[in-house]
Fold these 4 entries.
Entry 1:
Amino acid sequence: MTGNTSAFVRSVSACVQQLARFRRDRRGNIAIMFGLMAPVLLGGMGLAMESAYWYVDQRGMQNAADAAALAAATDGTSNYQTTANAVAAQYGYTNGANNATVTSTNAAACPGTGATNCYRVSITYKQPLYLLPVIGYRGNAEVVGSRAQLLTAAATATQSTTPRNYCILALNTIGTALLSNGGPKADLSGCNTMSNASATCNGHDLGADYGDAHINDNGCGVIQTSNVPIVPDPYAGLASNIPANTCGSYPQIPAKHSGDPDLPSSNKWTGTKSMSGNVQVCGDLQLTGDVTIDAPTGAVLVIENGQLDTNNHTIRTANGSAVTIVFSGDNSGSYTHSPTGGGTLDIQAPTSGVWSGVAMYQDPSLTSGVDIYEAGNTPTWDISGLVYLPNADVTFSGAVNKSSNGASCFVLVVSDIVINGTGSILAHGGCTQAGLNMPLNQVPGRGQLVY
């Protein structure tokens, strides 16, 4: 019994000593700790690495979205989506490729304005996950059976605009409303031109500061801009100020209308004509000598179903006087509703009142007998103010200068215009002084990020 007890004691003592040595022995602890910590370490490394990828990709996506939105807003045409996609692709995000999508709209809400005409580009990208699934993070998307993280970026831009005034406005919205064929001597410097359709200038840009067109501008203007918004007719409403037609007949010039009797004396003018308010002439008005209009308070000369035949003479406004020449009537018969003949139109428009700034006005209801084939030449035009011919096909040649007594301002509004090689506008820059609000457009400029 004693021997057994001694053996047991020795055995227990040996175990205690072994346990004590094991407790003091630290060999292999690192391996055990690494085994326990490995998932955490790998997860942390995955989070750090893949978060870095997310950050880089997110920055790249945002840069791409910003650039694409700016490009779409600057484009401003029906091709804005193609433009946005092309810019995003330059940053490595091609719509429908490599887990990326690019979408764009031109009807996005504009922050802070309530408008819904902003351009917004959104980019999404599915980034595959490699290490994060080790710690149980599985992302929010899938790529070909593997887990991925969906990243998104978006940008909103608006189209900035620049106000532009025009000295020539072609209102026709079909075809080529402004045309010039080889005009090396044409000089529209200091002016801007606008066509509500296309504009084509062959051989010379006319020297206009800006050439704008709603469809395509082909060579017109030192700076040429296409896809410009249409300019609505800014002067059609003035027709409501044309006095009622009280004429019973419309005498025509015999030499131009075979068989007609001679014009009555009321239709033949020479010398000084004192005028005020509305003065109506029925039928053709022919100058038989130089005419000076004395109208200190301004006057409106309304020619009903007739032409103004300068007949190689000059009609001018006296110093301090002003006149608006209005062509009105109807489209029946073979009436001419325009100035004709040699000589000179030397007239200043009123600088106040309903006809402020308007030198010559064709009633917009007139569609026949309105064309002018030698504008600026027969007669010569020395005009301060607006010449409004909304339904006329006009051939413009010669030099238009300011009137002898008026400001330096000339604006021509037509349906279609052909500018010959000598077409020049020398009267510009003083339309405010002349009392004329020039045709105005808001021309698209570069896009601006708003969100």
Entry 2:
Amino acid sequence: MKNLLIAIPAYNEADILEKNILKLYNFCLKNIKDYNWKIIISDNNSQDKTLEIAKKLSKKHKEIKYIHQEDRPKSLSLQKTFLKFNSNLYMYMDADLSTDIKHIPEFLKEIENYDIIIGSRIVKARNLKREIISKGLLLILKLFFSSNIKDFQCGFKIINKKVRDNIIPKMKALRHGFMDTEMLLVALNKGYKVKEIPVKWKDERKSKVQVFKDILDTSKNILRIKKDLIFGKY
């Protein structure tokens, strides 16, 4: 039986963590029968009781584990989590479960024929700042890369072990929340099979993005990725 790791990066998520992890846990118990699955809570040096809650859940349920990271960036946390554990498949989602977890079985079915499955958000009214960032990112990407992907940064993806072993260790854009995009651009460049699936997604959190700063950071990372691909640094 194959192994499935579900990573949940968490920074100051004490208000929602226990409820959402148990929701995910119960869903997996009922619906994921063909995999040995584990939920890994990656505490990113939280300043609230996130780590305490993660420890409690881990003691109560053998399928729930936790690790504590001294660094806060989400992308760095995901990289460290993926590289710390051996599995056949690696999935990740946001702690607020903004993407409907009912999509998990569909992703598991599709990953059998692909290397990466990514969620594509469908919403009627997204946060304006997020919308500006998303459209700005796609515009810049179209200028430098040939790709039909519509949503690079939805926090709901699954990858196989080949991607974990050959691409994840080489990621560099770890402190700007940009590993999703870098991973996909490198994977597409190297001929990995990627599929984008529409997902139900809700945007209930107050946006923390800084539009101009984030677009500037995005542009710098894209230029660096393009250069590194040209010079074979991946």
Entry 3:
Amino acid sequence: MLKQQLNFKLSQKLSPQQIQLMKLIQLPTQAFEQRIKQELEENPALEDGKEDLEKDFDDEFSNDDEYDNDGTESIDADIDVDDYLSDDEIPNYRLQANNYSADDEEKHVPYAAGTSFSQYLQSQLSTFRLTDIEKEIANFLVGSVDESGYIRRTLQDIVDDLAFTQNVYTDEATVERVLKLVQELDPAGVGARSLQESLLIQLRRKEPNKDVSLAIDLLEKSFDHFSKKHYNKLLSKHDITEDELRHAIDVIGHLNPKPGGHFSGNARLAEHVIPDFTIKIVDGELELTLNGRNAPEMHISNDYNNMLKGYKEAKEKSKAQKEAVMFIKQKLDSAKWFIEAIKQRQQTLMITMSAIMHYQKEYFLTGDERNLRPMILKDIADEIGMDVSTVSRVANSKYVDTPYGTKLIKVFFSESMKNDQGEDVSTREIKKILEMSIEDENKRKPLTDEKLAKLLKEKGYPIARRTVAKYREQLDIPVARMRKEI
């Protein structure tokens, strides 16, 4: 049986303009420049440069609806971009951010073209005398080398793939023989199937001496004990002194565990961070500036305005002319919105970063992470009267140049914990003290997580052992056993 009924539903939806504005706010400087370039290419009514915005546009067409008799809104309809961002009312004085200029622009850094790691390895194969099948296998093996320099596949898998994808039918013995040739390529250790194999390849290329021979012996016969730093077992098993073991460990410590990781010609370009903000200390006070590349000069094309003037002055208006005017109106509205959106983006970035800077004033004046106050997104959102999502978009993708280095803004946010006096302290402060405690420990007897928890408690930070373990892992510090030195 079919039934019909009416339901009222209240829902909130973002307009396309709101969504685009949120995306603009989220973009870092380089991506923002690309977005502007894209908009300039797609909208001929928008131009860059220091021209007057909408010259004579409002005066000529403020009362004109003659071109459009179907009730379409006026061409120069105002767009209130503030409403697109949020429902918060922001005082005008908080939207003043005229502290950027062309002089603040960060210049582009050119990148040199390079050779990929795989191409570098393949170029070396030409120095070997190989049969056609061996070349096919060698090229396939080089193609299987990952960015760290390892081949993380079994020989049987490689044999199967050679047959299915290259029509090369061979066996494991042949592949292993060719693999030994690949492992002779530079950098030393490349083409290994494990860390143990890579370290041994590098050691065997060194000038033979007592320390190198002992290092090879340790890795061949006692790699498990060595990797777990069971030094007493190594001393007993190999009948060596502590000095001999220390020298062998020093030799191994100078090897590269990722032979492909530091290849200078790697095709993956080094990340170049362009700070979106700059914080300076001037006469003991903090000074915040926005990168000038976030404040481009944009204006409406005068050619499009002239087209509208010509249409208004024409006595007879054809249907084709009316359609052309509607197209022009659409492009002008889009250009006006984009210009206003850029201004709103600048204002939002400055308001948000200014609030963060003043909230963390002690840190920015000293550079000491122990002075970082507990701060969550809601703290800043409440301070500036904006939504938490807006603050998140600014914090997650923007960088600030400080006297202590270029930092990702989100690192200034942290949760709070109470010390033994009931005061809220930042978890980053606790992590810093934990890191310093580990640096000062006796490396022959590293502190366990339980001892670290006890030490932090003595310093006024009562946290559990499991919390210490969590913070230690976040700091990428190994367990006590792996920090032991002889």
Entry 4:
Amino acid sequence: MKVTMIGHSTVLIETDGKRILTDPYFSLWGNPAYKRVAPPAMTREQLKDVDLVLVSHNHFDHTDPRFFRSLASDVPVVAPRASSWVTRLKGARNVIGLGKWEVKQLGAIRVTAVPARHITVTRGFVVQAEGKSIYFAGDTYYREFMMEIGKKFSLDLALMPVTTFRIPLTMGETSAVKAVRDLSPKVVIPIHLGIQPRSPLMRTGQTPEGFRKRCQDAGLNVEVRILREGETLQV
């Protein structure tokens, strides 16, 4: 199983001969409030032949209508059930909506939708294949359901947002450490690092390196791997 950071929350998971893409986002500009920090490592065209797409929620930096329209009509796009209609409006065709703790078996790959908490309808996902378990958190705050996820799954890897802005949209360093304590993953890869507020007043000094140091100071038995665009981790 191999994981490649494409950029922001877009991660390519290669397992059992299949390619899974999380929260596709390929815009180079961002929006009026947030700018893209670095371009994605691969283009829409290079990834349009993936076998499965996971969508945690429908915010601009997690869904790419041009990418959805480029997918073959039979490629499954797994999304939260309550907002799957929005994913369809954005161009995805073969949308599979999952509720909390619902499971979808796609060949040898098992996908479980797990709880998440954000300012919109959202889900996390646990992908199981080749005897490994990967937790993709999408955008979420720390909540007690993470302890339940940690009890249900032996996580080899967690893809988690671990920095925040002045208006918190994801976990900051402190709450991400709490999440690691509850989830007990072997490895954590910080995500949601590909955009930045255009206004300096909206930025904080929190960083993935700061999160890694807090994990060490807390005595947590976890490896924090910071992947830049195009870098790969063999799970």
